[in-house]
Design goal:
By secondary structure, the protein is of the alpha+beta class. It is 38% helix and 10% strand. The strands form four sheets. Strands 2, 4, 5, 8, 9 and 10 form a six-stranded mixed beta sheet that branches. It has a four-stranded antiparallel beta sheet with strand order 1-3-7-6, with no helix packed on it. A four-stranded mixed beta sheet has the order 11-14-13-12. A hairpin with a 2-residue loop joins strand 8 and strand 9.
Length: 545
Amino acid sequence: MKIARFYFIIVLSLLFHSCNPQSNETLFLRLNQIGFLPADYKTAVIISRKPFEEKVYTIKNSEDETILVDSIQQLPLKLNSNFNYSALINFSDLNKSGEYFIEFQKVKSYSFNIDENVFNAVRDSLSKFFRVQRCGPTNPLLHNVCHLQDASKVIGYTDSTGIDLTGGWHDAGDYIKFLYTTSFTTYMLLFSYEFASEKFSFDLDNDSVPDILQEARVGLDFLLRCNFADDAFISQVQDDRDHSAGWRLPDEDAFTYNRPAFVKMNRSQIGLNSAALAIASRIWKERFYDYEFSEKCLNVSKKIFNLREKIEDYNDDEKYYKLNEFQSKLALAAIEIFKSSKENKYLETALDYGSQIKENNWWSWGDLNALVFYKLAEYDSNFTSRLKSILQFYRSYSNSNLFGGAHPYNWGTTHSFVGVVLSSILFKKLTGSVEFDELAILNRDFILGRNAWGMSFIHNIGEKFPKRIHHQIAYFNNGYLPGAMVSGPAPDSLLRKFNLHPSSNELYDFNFSAIYSDEFENYITNEPTISSNATALFIFGYYSK
């Protein structure tokens, strides 16, 4: 009996040994933990504390059969003073569907898949995050209906009485609602559907309506409520007190009956707000034949757009989403109104604003020049070369660093990296060129584990992911927050500025000038937002089947 038990334990240990990654704390394999499409550029990075003892790696399938044997490519780059040696594994020629793992110097990687639908689960998870963020009577996930008294009063306008501002999404880990990010998120959901409706018509709840359009309607209904006067709209619900109230569920918010709304309009808000409503007008007309709602969205979009020269009397004292540049957002609004109304004056206005836009090498809720160039390139090919110049900067920077990140780290690194992927996809759609495919894949794979920390930055995706996300609902659900993409690594100097530099932990050895910390309190590296998830949903929806 003891002998049988001994052999049983041996078998279990062998099974565990074969199914889990091994580490000797000296050498680590970093790669996309989910997998690849068959035709993808497929790579992994090795970092090591010591010189490499071997030069050959092996790829095996789930049956432990050797599928590929090849040599590593040593790199002249080091991660930090802990890891002075690095190498690249390129297995792009492996394109047969299946489950695999890499083995090098007796260290095994996490298993990964090669398949045409490998990113479907990522897409589906990202889409769930928006249900968690829902506010008001919108059938939210992981919490009860909340904030049914929004908003208690209006600040910044002559009429200070309360108005109906229920619905929409909480912006991030907090419970404030912003017009900026709601407009951006709504626009991105709608843009995704229009860009590739065959990919974004997924219907997980089987009600014959694309899930992404259902979610966009949550944003649209809120944006229309924000349009409370002929000469003004609401730009924010709730104030900074939300951040000092401590951890609590939204339906248990102590400020439920004291959440004011603010009129703090600027031209960037006008642009994003108007663009989201204009593209919605087109989709609701063409997809649902809802001519009444379509006309309502277009009329409100035009009305808001026409406020752009009449807002000097409103004080833009936005604390969290302040932005001086407005031409790109107004160009986006004008081109969307033109496409929905066919009125040429809006096309002329869009091209005029477009000529005033500078290239910028960042992507966020307020830095969407690449998308604007893509939209305008349909009518002026000069904007194609301007989009290309952004991508050339990204590629040059990507080639200069170990993990292929397309620009320096900052607050919101993961959002901007998925924006790099989006920009590459847009250029490919415009030109048919695959010139930036590898750039796109490197930055996509960074999000899923091909990074210094070996961390998939989307909760519950991959084997190693954030578990202490800076988010109220995650805090009360043992860290669970489906599909939340955290903001990711940020400069060491930025974390020190906000007193968020982490103490020693399991990830500490992999930090360099950039830091990643998986802690509930770290709102710089570990907070998800609706805007970043909207961009991520675009790219993983695009790569899905």
